[in-house]
Design goal:
four-stranded antiparallel sheet; 179 residues; six-stranded mixed sheet
């Protein structure tokens, strides 16, 4: 009964303008709290523990196999930059790669420690000698990350050696007919 009297007294003293300002201030407080919590959310969703090269010597145009061990804390949208840097310091963007990931459970990847294998085609133009494969992930876990600054995670570099291609590096084109 006391609560009902207090509620009625509150509404008798409050006009539409004050009620509107009260509601807008509440919404602004919730919005500000959401922005601050999004800005403070900088924990990487994936932590790389190890990168193990499964094929330490790869011919030009061959396939480099790497096994990554990671701890996944949550799932976020990511963009990925991949580079193969050859012995001359030239950076190449690999044209193809595959992921051998463990089975998804009902469409969601498992959280916690997991291991997956990646196969990367080494470019034909890569110089022979010691090389490095680098991967950089840009995670956008909330609107703040999408609009301002994503969470950047670098995978451990994978070192390997590029050997000479077993076949000539000439393009495969049909022969010209004899005139």
């Amino acid at each position: 009964m006391l609560l009902k009297r207090s509620w009625n007294a509150f509404w008798r003293k409050t006009d539409i303008t004050a009620g509107f300002i009260f509601i807008m201030a509440g919404l602004a407080g919730v919005g500000l709290g959401s922005v601050v919590s999004s800005a403070l959310d900088n924990d990487p969703p994936t932590i790389f523990e190890q990168a193990r090269v499964l094929t330490p010597q790869v011919p030009q145009g061959g396939v480099l196999d790497i096994q990554y061990t990671v701890v996944q804390n949550r799932v976020c949208a990511a963009s990925v930059d991949r580079l193969v840097t050859d012995s001359e310091g030239t950076a190449h963007v690999p044209a193809t790669y595959t992921v051998d990931r463990r089975a998804f459970i009902e469409g969601y990847p498992p959280e916690g420690r997991e291991s997956y294998q990646r196969s990367i085609t080494v470019p034909l133009a890569a110089a022979i000698g010691k090389a490095r494969y680098d991967v950089r992930f840009s995670y956008a876990c909330n609107l703040w990350h999408k609009m301002t600054k994503p969470i950047i995670v670098n995978a451990p570099p994978a070192y390997f050696e590029i050997t000479e291609a077993p076949a000539p590096l000439e393009p495969l084109t049909p022969e010209k007919p004899a005139s």
